Amino acid sequence: MKFFLRKVFRLLLVLVFILLCIIIVKTVTFSSKQNQTASISPITVDPQAKNRFAQALRAATVSYPSRIDTAMFVELLEHIDSNYLLVDSLLEKERINDFSLIYKWPGKNAKLKPVLLMGHTDVVPVEETSKGSWTEAPFSGIIKNDEIWGRGTLDDKLNVFGVLEAIEALLKTNYQPNRTLYLAFGHDEEVGGTHGAQAQVAWFQQRGIDFEYILDEGSIILEEALPGLTAPVALVGVGEKGYATLTLSVNLEQGGHSSMPPQATAIGILAKALTTLEANPFPARIDGATQELFEYTGPEMDLPYKAIFANLWLFKPLLTKQLSKAPTSNAVLRTTTAITMIRGGIRDNVLPTTAAAKINFRILPGETVETVMAYLRETINDERVIVSQGEGEGFASNPSKLSSTNSFGYNVIQNTIQELFPAAVVAPSLVIAGTDSRHYEMLSDNIFRFTPMQLSKRDLKRIHGINEKISVANYEQVIRFYQQLINNSCK
Predict the structure, then answer these.
(1) 411 and 370, same domain (yes or no)
(2) In 47-146, at which residue ranges do the beta strands (DSSP E only) sit?
(3) Is 214 in the same domain as 275?
């Protein structure tokens, strides 16, 4: 027996040694995917750019599901026309459904496929109850302590006006792109893009125009993005999650008096279903854009994190467990379930016959709205709970296709980032929110989602939140990024 145990022990030592050798070899050969791109001298930005941006923020261009304040959008468009005179006079311009814009800047070489830069001019509303919590009024457009305050500074007027400033500056130098450049600014992205982006797509389709690559708003340069990585990460979205809001409803034949409750009530059945869903989240996966994120960031990490990401074949279960604990990292691993609204009951002494809840899902690539509904029915496993996607649930979309990191578009975006943000690690990522670019998939195989601003994790809550603001320095970098991206794309 001792002889047998010694042999087993020796075998285990050999296996452990082999395992350690594999881990070490994979870690040592886990090479960088960063381009060897030198930084450039800062591009001069017009000192008045921040004031033009601040003025744009004062137009409360809020979009609602059924309406917009047309006067505010008229004010914003007049501001664009009167402050970007060269853009207005030298570029071809189309108004789509009155308030969305398409610009064309013809290139010298008609054989090159054009590039499209996107953004949107609408913003989300500000809750009445939160207005008192703002340090500066949401639509004040105030510049204070080298910060620009107001709704739209982070989502998404900074992209629109960053592009306009960059092109106006290039036009002043008599620059002409070699490749044709299009701009598309929608006016209802925050409510689905029906009258903006979708109508713009139809305009391009009617003219047979498609693109070498498309760049829309999206992920950012995030500080302290991953453990073991001190450098900020420039997250270039190569795809985005799908979106759907589904309703769970319970309809019973009998309600009755609260003094004689049955064993199962409508609210109780619904509550059990919701609890079951929260206790059984969608399966986590490290693949697609998320795996690419780790392949690009892992080689830049310190030990032992570099070893972990170099050996996902071994550490994937451990990594998945750890990343699932934080909402920000959990969101890139799985389809997320967010119970956002619940309704049931009319009085405290009446048993309701109906109860319902709305749940918002952000859907991981590889799944669809239909597979999400099937998962809910299977997990809840109660015929009394109806899963539906009815009218009035808002827009819904399946996850986007993933764009290639081996494409011209990704490489030119990566090079431009490294020229302007040399300390950043550039990596592909999955955008967990929705953008107008999801409507453009038939116009390009290469759609990217990136906003060239650098934020900390604590700043993320300002997006759609209280005290939305951006530093002047950050906004100026946005302008520089677009100017250099145009230079690099249209040589």
Answers:
(1) no
(2) 63-64, 67-68, 92-96, 100-105, 115-120, 143-144
(3) no
Range of the domain at 323: 284-333
Indicate whether 66 and 201 sit together in one domain. Answer: yes
Q: 222 and 195 share a domain?
A: yes
Domain identity same for 215 and 314? no
- Looking at residue 1, what is its pLDDT? 65
Determine contact, residues 217/408, Cβ cutoff 8 Å: no
The pTM of this model reads 0.93
Confidence of residue 257 (pLDDT cuts 50, 70, 90): confident
Average pLDDT over residues 473-478: 98
Residues 264 and 354 grouped into a single domain? yes
Q: What's the chain's average pLDDT?
A: 94
Q: Is residue 13 situated within a structural domain? A: no
Question: Whats the size of the chain, residue-wise?
Answer: 491
pLDDT value at 49 more than 90: yes
Q: How far is CA 124 from CA 62, 191, 330, in A?
A: 6, 9, 25
Q: Which of 292, 225, 166 is nearest to 455 (CA)?
A: 225
Find the catalytic residue in 165, 188, 189, 459.
189
**Catalytic site residue 370?**
no
Cα-Cα-Cα-Cα dihedral of 178, 184, 185, 189, to 10°? -140
Side chain identity at 320, as an amino acid letter? T
Question: CA distances (Å), 455 to each of 56, 465, 470, in order?
Answer: 22, 15, 9
CATH number, domain of 249, equals 3.30.70.360
Q: Is the pLDDT of residue 5 over 70?
A: no
Nearest to 339 by CA among 252, 431, 433, 276: 276
In a domain, 18, yes or no: no
Contacts with 324 (C-beta within 8 Å, 6 or more apart), sequence order: 284, 330, 333, 334
Which is catalytic among the residues 122, 367, 436, 476?
Answer: 122
Stretch 28-51: mean pLDDT: 95
Tell me: do 390 and 274 sit in the same domain: yes
Tens digits of per-residue pLDDT, 378-421?
Answer: 999 999 999 998 665 667 899 999 999 999 999 999 999 999 99
Residue 250 placed within a domain: yes
Q: Is residue 91 part of a domain?
A: yes
> Can you give the CATH number for the domain in which 418 is found?
3.40.630.10
β-partners of residue 361 are 244, 337
Q: What residue ranges in 233-313 does DSSP mark as E strands?
A: 233-240, 242-251
Residue 183 corresponds to which tokens in the numbers above?
A: 């701009």
Give how many domains the chain has, as a whole number. 3
**Where is the domain boundary, 317, 333, 349?**
333
189 is known as an active-site residue = yes
60 and 205 inside one domain: yes
Strands 447-455 vs 213-222: parallel, antiparallel or unpaired = parallel
